[in-house]
Automatic annotation (TrEMBL):
Pfam families on file: Amdase
Species the sequence originates in: Roseovarius rhodophyticola
Name of the protein described by the UniProt record: Maleate isomerase
Domain of life: Bacteria
InterPro entries per UniProt: Iso_Racemase_Enz_sf (IPR053714), MaiA/AMDase (IPR026286)
Amino acid sequence: MTEVVQTADITRFQSTSVCDDIALDEGPGKYRIGLIVLSNDYTVERDFMNMRPNDDVAIFTTRIANTPDCNVNTLRKMASRIADAAELLVPEGRLDTVAYACTSGSVVIGYEAISDHIKAVRPEAACITPITASLAALDTFGAQKLAVLTPYVDEVNAVIADYLQTAGKQICAFSSFRIEDNEEMAALTGEAIFKAAVKSDRPETDALFISCTAIRAVEVVDRIEQALGKPVVTANQAMFWQALRAAGCEDKVEGYGTLLRQF
């Protein structure tokens, strides 16, 4: 037997009005950061939320399709998907900045191309990439001689090194975990990153740069600075710092390195 479902007569339904109580503000987030995260990233959203100085900073996230392997070819293929991802970030809402969260991708694709894709759908938002933010952070410290630590295979390391040198930085030491699989990058422990960072430094360097948004360097950046006695810039830390400042928030943040604590 077929059960007959009784439906409400919507033409006669009437709720109790509370229209007199409507009060509107500008919505959540005095400072609004849009974040384009790789589909297989485990780290960036957590890092951004942990580094927020207060609830005035709102993070809105979307994802962009990516493969398990991190190499120049797969990184380049993300370019055509950036605008579609950015378009999903609170489409009718205000955003102060949009950050594309892939360091190696931002080097391979290039800042101008990434900015063009984002500006096509969010023309009002400042475009942030981890590599340009990291360079700005290093310049803030006056750091020219660098030690560099990455998780990448050498095909990707080569383009990172070339980018830094073209930007006028001197690389005194370049160390890598030589990992291609994004899942393995995300599984690197904070302790492993800390030990590698200490080994990677050289006495003559001005700062240590830790590349890659996928690894959990932010959680140990304070420890590394204390061990080395010099500034440490990580991709997620620098990207958040620049996004925060571009959004107009000047609040300082404790626990995530000198960059956020002082600048």
